[in-house]
Amino acid sequence: MESKRYTLSYYLIKRQLYWISYLPLPIPWYNKPVSTFCCFVSFICLSRLIIFILVPLEPTLALYLGDFAYNLDSLHDIICSMVSFWLVAILISFHLLDQTNRSVKLQAWFFRLSILDKGKDHFFKKPNNKLAFASKLLFINLKTSLVCCPSFAFCLYIPHIINNYSNATLVIVLLVHGLILVMAAFMGICFIASFGYLFAFYAFLIGQKLRYITRVFKFQIEQTTKSYRKIVSNSDHLVSLVKQVYCADLFWSKANSIVFFATFFPQILIVYSVFFVPLNAVHFISLIGLGSINFTCGLSVNFVCGVHARSKLNDCQKQLIRVIFIKDAKLRVPLKIKLLIISEYLLPRKLFAIFGALEMNSLNYLLVFIEMAIHLLLVILNANRK
């Protein structure tokens, strides 16, 4: 984490072309225009997909307009809808990120990840091995997805390029459409997948901090002679951490909602397409690759780490309540009141939630998969009727 090339700021600016003004490194002048252009390209792609779904087109015209799913019959509308979810999420996420330039409250998400720039923060003053390993996994996932997702997206056009290799004009047109889809896929990684991976690391980081605070509380409870100073100091750490989480949640609750919207329904459509519809080898591999990235960033690591952070928060609350009611801790009444307020008001809040309601815990994670299975059955039944 010490090398500049592996800092979060450097990666966001150089690899993902972020233009947000609160990053600590200079922003190249071309980041904003290039990102805006790619966002406009995503909007064009979305408009075309809506036309492809609503308007029947001749095969040749469909190819010239860039409809890579024109020959997939009943699967055509499903794949176009799947990609449309991603494109809508890109536009919403682009707007959210741009909003953070004008709202200080929405900038807290980045400052809570300062450990990815410096290798340490005010809480972990020395490099932490678990967090160092997690940061390496984070950057591996980010960089791999940034390469693989556009590649899989371009592969959707390869069968058509091969089948029409004798028509040079059409091949050139298809290559252009492939590059357009590559730009849209690049935006998808920058503004959807990245948020999923970054939240996963953030939630794991918060979980590690809460784990440390919980251990200190538990240690003091087990001691015959309680240290009032350590209890107060640890309580201050908890209060400060919960405030930071609450401030960062103003951004993460919106970002997580976008990521969930972008990945939940497309994952159902991908599973249906891959397992219940015959596909050529290239489309099959492309959908498997896109589905893997979709599931990893939106329906696995972010949820698992969110569940981890929420469970550590619950453990910390239990130890905090035990500390408050220990008679020989000799806590002053104002401090007890302060800790009770934290315990009863801030800690039970949905600090790791989607749409402000779907809290990240084990039960809700299970319900998400049950809901996906139900929707998948509905898609299969609807397809059989047709």
Automatic annotation (TrEMBL):
Mind listing the UniProt keywords for this protein, alphabetically? Membrane, Transmembrane, Transmembrane helix
The organism's place on the tree of life at top rank = Eukaryota
Membrane-crossing residues?
A: 34-55, 75-97, 138-162, 174-205, 258-278, 284-305, 364-383
Name of the protein in question = Gustatory receptor
- Please tell me the species this chain comes from: Tetranychus urticae (Two-spotted spider mite)
Q: What is the lineage of its organism?
A: Eukaryota, Metazoa, Ecdysozoa, Arthropoda, Chelicerata
